[in-house]
Amino acid sequence: MSASLSFEIFPPRKDADFQTIIRTLDELRDLSPNFISVTFGAGGSANSKKTLDIASLVKNKYQTSSIVHLPCIHLNKNDIISILDECKKQGLKKILALRGDIVPDKPISRDFKYASDLISFIKKQGDFEIYAAAYPEKHNEARDFVEDIRHLKFKVDCGVDLLLTQLFFDNEDFYKFKEKCDIAGIKVPILAGVMPVTNKRQVLKITQMCGAKIPTKFAKILHKYEQNDEAMKDAGLAYAIDQIVDLLTNDVLGIHLYTMNKPNIARRIYEATHTLF
Ligand code: FAD
User: What range does the domain containing 15 cover?
Assistant: First the structure.
């Protein structure tokens, strides 16, 4: 069986930028992804419209499978029911069920504390395929790996069909994580999240947010090329391609590419690796 290639995109911040997402999708569609997932800002239900509009576009106009990200930490049961109803109307059957990152000053959900609460709830709302997040370097709030894997096993047992991982820069972390999942009896497919880094600012912001560590080999690249945009882009792409080649050689089930809405980057990765899938 060949490995899958999928993309993550995010809704543009300003409504006026909606056309840019159309151009992004025009280009991504040519790369024949297995699916495209659309993020959803955890701030509340007002963010759902853009996510659903784009996911629907992906599915209904571009005829490509789409995944709706759904963070629950600032939503209540009624919000989730109305979002799922809208998904049903648009034919969107695949949900990435997330807790979400807590936004300061926003009221916390009365109904959902963890992604597992949301997953159990979605299971009762209809026939959805449920995806969830996993962390090869453990989630940054978890005390240790044993605790995080125990929570992950519980989450999967609530009804997860597939796991998508957080980005990581050291494949050894992913392989060790997979071993831990095997030992814990987590048997659902796990797709590896890869982010091509094209500038130093981007990587510092992201690693601060999700806690991914930067291996020495990659830190040297960042240090050497940070002042040279073109060289940084080439080196970042080469690093991501190297990661993907190694993952595919080691029989990963799929690569989920964090595209950052940059289809030219996705295309360069696709061109360098598509015969390996
Ligand atoms: P959970 O699985 O609920 O875990 C959160 C923490 O709680 C972990 O430390 C876990 O160990 C702990 N925990 C879980 N269950 C229990 C329990 N029963 N008792 C005690 N502790 C427990 N965020 C967004 O806002 N929007 C997005 O679109 C988005 N997309 C993402 C896509 C991917 C592929 C990934 C990997 C992350 C994404 N995130 C997104 C970020 C995600 O919401 C955050 O990482 C968030 O902090 C955790 O979400 P989760 O669903 O993994 O949480």
Answer: 4-276
Query: How many whole angstroms separate alpha carbon 42 and alpha carbon 74?
Result: 7
| Domain CATH number, residue 82 | 3.20.20.220
Q: Whose CA is nearest to atom 39 of ligand 1?
A: 100
Question: Token pair for residue 181?
Answer: 């999942």
Query: Rounded to the nearest 10 degrees, what angle do helices 229-249 and 216-225 cross at?
Result: 160
Average pLDDT over all residues of the chain: 95
Does residue 40 line the site of ligand 1, with CB under 6 A? yes
Average pLDDT over residues 207-235: 92
Go through the chain and tell me how many residues it has: 277
With a threshold of 0.70, does the pTM exceed it? yes
Considering its fold, how many domains does the chain have in total?
1
Q: Name the residue at shortest CA distance from atom 36 of ligand 1.
A: 166
- The answer to whether residue 6 scores a pLDDT higher than 90 is yes
- Does ligand 1 have an atom closer than 6 angstroms to the CB of 178? no
**CA 126 / ligand 1 centre spacing (Å):** 23
